[in-house]
DNA sequence: TAATGGGTGCACT
DNA sequence: AAGTGCACCCATT
């Protein structure tokens, strides 16, 4: 398996062709860092995906398109790459909206800038006597220790002379240092009205942005959430901080606010930023009232149990590691699931900081994009999100399933969730002013961080015994109601997008992307060609549960320690679904019980209506659907649409990405049934 | 209770008389920050301590001496002070070695520098139009965010102009800024051969050192570990970092390496630095093999349980909070117990950093002191520490009791403790090279972070039903074997203390302090006048268990969540013992069982030999005892001894503290039986 | 800096 | 005993 075919005497030199198409490699191995031979991987992966059966037409198309998606820059053959070299002859087939089983259509906008490589994509040169310590640049401003001086035990790597990145052999115009750009802010006032896709004069920021757009697009297309997802066309970061900035550009539009969990010179681990106290409505906690036989064991012990934090349980992880060999950062999504609703929150402090950083580096392009995002998010308010009914009679063992009314708040009534108790720890009930709605978001917690959702409307489908979790796709990004009050001013002052916003003001922005998600249904899961209905997908997936092993590790597994005999019945169950849109269905659950136990999986729970669970369309979105479809379908292949003109109202900067915000913001492309409770059900 | 008698219109001006005597207030209230009227507190406290019975002669002496200990500086009447103003007429009675029930003798050394106040100890002046935000100084070098600029949400308090501390009304020569001193290092080359106690020319560093010595002395004398222990004569810190530095001067000699758990502008919370992987031998884990009825519930669940870290479980906490009113830092030991052996480890990286900082601020006095400490610690090697036998047949419910062979290591055999498993988590057995000994340190863990020690030799004493924990006093500080190899050179070069060290080389340095611990036996607990034997103390205390309520909260209580029905039977059980020396007795325990459960307290376990548990003398210490006693008794009232001359070999700095290192290093003065497992049994 | 996982100090929020 | 973001570490293979 570990066929590490890297040659120490060879070094990759990147050709100065910055444009690339993202490739995501659904590795099955835990170690995605020593990739195997690409051909072998192709076979293995595809066989796994296809469960050994002959390829269908869709599968073939998908496979071919994946090969087309091969990025040709910065990634040598067989290293971190799944598919072969990029060639753009079949680009027009990539953009496939798999829901309708229509032929793949061209990806919007991104591929306008894809250029035919004019040189060999990689050049191997003998490794010179280069110092082994090629360090990534880190803008380390922190100097906590009073001094270093003579203390031999303090070895400060930063004090070493920087011998990295400036190597003459490295040719890449993807290099960008936000620090440098900040200091040279005036030089980058973005005159760029040069919109020709083959422009070689792309600035580093523009390259960053392009790659971030591509990553978003591919992430929306991504399906194997249980696997490592490699963000392969990654720009060359000059500074370590730029990695986060770039990832923020990708994940903020997806409703994910990332935070660094751990970092050092060569590695950054990102996670979801912990929920705030006001985000109880986003947290997924649900429990049933029927106690199991172990109830008596939890009485006095449960209150002594130390709950670290119910806000910080999301299993989502991104790992960025600096590869000294390629002198690039490798970015892998280790865990693509979430324990909460995904929400684009322009009011977040971190988001404002992010915007501020964008202003400092003068990344007007991205600023515009997020201004639009903010505006569209605001226009969708108030988002009335349905809750998903809990059909607990048959899914007692379903642990985590995350639908709560995004705008609901439990202030009006006592919520017995761990979050509520955590929030009220200081004995002060939150005032109802913080809550906007008093909807019946019936979420019950057992106080152990393990959540359940009771499904009420039992329909006519079956659930296999090992299906333990309801999985909710994040197709409907909820929007923070506490919108930044300064937003409109900022937005208007930035360039007057009101024409554009009026055009889109009635469109559910976040649902727009769903329609254009380009996920082929090569598993034939999509039995329902209606965009809003995927009732049979999940069952198809269940039948394919062994096709793809589950890489979800037990990062946040099982804090359910307080006397609950939680037997894990599902191992490596991994299912992927096609783009099932919607999800915020009715959540009329029982919320009276604080504690709940997992019933043994062997209990006879066979009937689950996953249409109810996952596929109920967004109420408001449904209203917007017709407009949305019209808008989306009106996008030409090159997909500049009205947005192009609108965007030009901002300024003259090039806008390779801003025209496809719809796709960026909402893709409901993956679904993952995973093992443990904390590993949430949300994907983008 | 919250009689906050501070007058907003009055401000305390400190007289420039830096010398003070520590006062420790065993508050019963959870809130030690708004102290009550000192007179009321006197009554309350003393009544509680005495359980309402008439005072004995010893009690009266203690009370009187406590009043004498009133520090007169920096603390207004009734604020953070328990006793009345200092007057030194009865100083000669303070130093009482309560073990022998001899009359209190004078505290050594410190009081040589106590001076008669020549002015009113506090001056109240009308508060001027001073801004309310008197901020503590923080040497904040960290600027993680790329910038602040216009972002309104980033409110950086450090950017505000500093209006604090420099107020003209504040007169205090206790002010010290290590930052400042570092920059003006040459100016403080410590000529001070001025050893007259009334010297007004004491430098800030000298004041810091003196107060740290006093704090150590009083901590050794401290008994109410379950209560908040206020370190009241606290120097005035210019910089936030100086708080830690000062506390390090106090707690390193006590075998405690502190680390910041949390800090902000106005508060610092310190804890014990987490044990390193090589410190398994210091960690206390013990469990019994007999399972309870809940065993079946833990089978599959236990292995999924997420053990955060078995190295980071010590409940010891110090809280330092800046009082804007007094513009001083209030330092309170919130939890004085430990879950591990206390050990002075000169090889610690943090300790070396600490020493380095001392050099940078040119605190030669403290450097000398710690050089001596290091040398003495090294001279005591190898310390053969006995383990305490576990008498588990009757103390199944005893949760945490910490005795492991300090120098033992479990490399030779499989240790089923959580630590061992934690260390070997990645399936690689640690090589035996890391271990020094292969002693039979039989430590068993149940994997839940809750530890038990099995007592084997059941003797003849009884344990009350609610006595749940064995408590081990830390009287025997173990010494890190991996001694700094550079120590001797440093030590010799600093001033050639070999004469002195040869004098003390055979003395168990850390036990020396025990003898001079000045704890009156006002609870009549000391039925055994033999210094090494306190067999009946604990029982006396148990009978007095209600005299002092237990402030130990359930902070670290019960991570034992995996199905164990751990019923807490003991609430507010708080016992204090007199200075019971020794502890590291034989620990021949069962270590075969990984999981263990708490038996219900109602099980009939009545017999415990606490002599075996707590009072077994240190083997080596016993050998040293005669020398130690001779040495200690040879100390004159002013207590300069040989150390004075020796110290002068260093240089001409004044040596208010270095002469009494024996007392500083080892005081076995407190014992605390507390509720939960994580709260360890070690005190100094 | 080989790759990769994790602990934890500690200050920001 | 604020929670957690972040980075300085260490450990294993
Ligand atoms: Zn998340
Ligand atoms: Zn400790």
From TrEMBL, chains A, B:
UniProt lists compositionally biased (Polar residues) regions at: 114-123
The UniProt entry, under InterPro entries, shows: AFT (IPR014842)
Could you tell me where the Basic residues compositional bias lies?
Answer: 129-145
Provide ranges: composition bias, Low complexity.
Answer: 575-591
Top-level taxon in the UniProt lineage: Eukaryota
Biased composition of type Basic and acidic residues is found at: 286-303
- Which Gene Ontology molecular function entries are recorded, alphabetically? DNA-binding transcription factor activity, RNA polymerase II-specific
A Pfam family found in this protein is AFT
Region (Disordered) residue spans: 114-149, 286-306, 424-461, 575-596
Q: Name one GO biological process term.
A: cellular response to iron ion starvation
Name of this chain's protein: AFT-domain-containing protein
Q: What is the lineage of its organism?
A: Eukaryota, Fungi, Dikarya, Ascomycota, Saccharomycotina
